């Protein structure tokens, strides 16, 4: 381009990082890889990597996720990735100036990653969020931001029903919220809000399930037709840690 000097600015690289969450065994898990090379060789990190020439950030995110975790391509292609934010502190990567575009997703029923990892990862696994410590780069910051984002998604979407069986009790649905939000919820208040939200859940006529208590069997529900919650189901401002 006439009059433009491409060498007038210092070069930098662009990467992508992904914070992918699911609920496993009643706990919120994040997908991590163990780095197989420097920098931070042997440290756990979020999946990610450098953009290739003429590759969009989202395309790179899906490619890196498949390469480093071994998740099936069909699974990766079907993930709804949400762009989180851009991380651009000058010293966030010891190799050079690197700007990262982070993505996040909260998805039910994700399979185990490949045990050996791939790319510059030598292992991949699901890790409880509370145990994801000592992450490489600024990935602890990205993880914290991503958890806040997915927690907010449960406030205004019906995503939580996807983590329940086809027919579920309100207690099972409440457990999903408590797991992702990390706080105990008031049972009567939760029940009232859920049943007052149009299209959130539908009662299964005549169906009930014993839940292990001494009371009567709990009524069963299925996901309703709504995709968004009106009004939103807001997190309590003060709660008891779960």
UniProtKB/TrEMBL annotation:
<dbReference type="InterPro" id="IPR000086">
    <property type="entry name" value="NUDIX_hydrolase_dom"/>
</dbReference>
<feature type="domain" description="Nudix hydrolase">
    <location>
        <begin position="11"/>
        <end position="154"/>
    </location>
</feature>
<protein>
    <submittedName>
        <fullName>NUDIX hydrolase</fullName>
    </submittedName>
</protein>
<dbReference type="InterPro" id="IPR036390">
    <property type="entry name" value="WH_DNA-bd_sf"/>
</dbReference>
<dbReference type="Pfam" id="PF00293">
    <property type="entry name" value="NUDIX"/>
</dbReference>
<keyword id="KW-0378">Hydrolase</keyword>
<dbReference type="InterPro" id="IPR036388">
    <property type="entry name" value="WH-like_DNA-bd_sf"/>
</dbReference>
<dbReference type="InterPro" id="IPR020084">
    <property type="entry name" value="NUDIX_hydrolase_CS"/>
</dbReference>
<dbReference type="Pfam" id="PF21906">
    <property type="entry name" value="WHD_NrtR"/>
</dbReference>
<comment type="similarity">
    <text>Belongs to the Nudix hydrolase family.</text>
</comment>
<dbReference type="GO" id="GO:0016787">
    <property type="term" value="F:hydrolase activity"/>
</dbReference>
<dbReference type="InterPro" id="IPR015797">
    <property type="entry name" value="NUDIX_hydrolase-like_dom_sf"/>
</dbReference>
<dbReference type="InterPro" id="IPR054105">
    <property type="entry name" value="WHD_NrtR"/>
</dbReference>
<dbReference type="InterPro" id="IPR020476">
    <property type="entry name" value="Nudix_hydrolase"/>
</dbReference>
């Amino acid at each position: 381009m006439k009059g433009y000097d491409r060498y007038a600015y210092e070069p930098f690289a662009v990467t992508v990082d992904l914070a992918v969450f699911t609920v496993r065994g009643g706990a919120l898990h994040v997908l991590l890889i163990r780095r197989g090379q420097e920098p931070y060789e042997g440290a756990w990190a979020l999946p990610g990597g450098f953009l290739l020439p003429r590759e969009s950030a989202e395309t790179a995110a899906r490619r890196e996720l498949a390469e480093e975790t071994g998740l099936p391509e069909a699974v990766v292609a079907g993930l709804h990735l949400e762009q989180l934010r851009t991380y651009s502190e000058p010293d966030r990567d010891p190799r050079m100036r690197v700007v990262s575009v982070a993505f996040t997703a909260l998805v039910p029923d994700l399979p185990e990653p490949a045990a050996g990892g791939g790319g510059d990862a030598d292992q991949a696994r699901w890790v409880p969020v509370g145990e994801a410590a000592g992450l490489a780069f600024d990935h602890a910051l990205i993880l914290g931001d991503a958890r806040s984002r997915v927690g907010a998604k449960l406030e205004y979407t019906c995503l939580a029903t996807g983590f329940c069986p086809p027919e579920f009790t309100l207690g099972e649905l409440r457990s999903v919220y408590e797991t992702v939000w990390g706080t105990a919820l008031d049972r009567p208040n939760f029940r009232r809000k859920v049943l007052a939200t149009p299209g959130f859940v539908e009662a299964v006529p005549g169906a009930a399930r014993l839940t292990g208590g001494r009371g009567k069997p709990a009524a069963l529900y299925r996901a309703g037709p709504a995709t968004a919650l009106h009004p939103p189901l807001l997190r309590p401002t003060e709660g008891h840690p779960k």
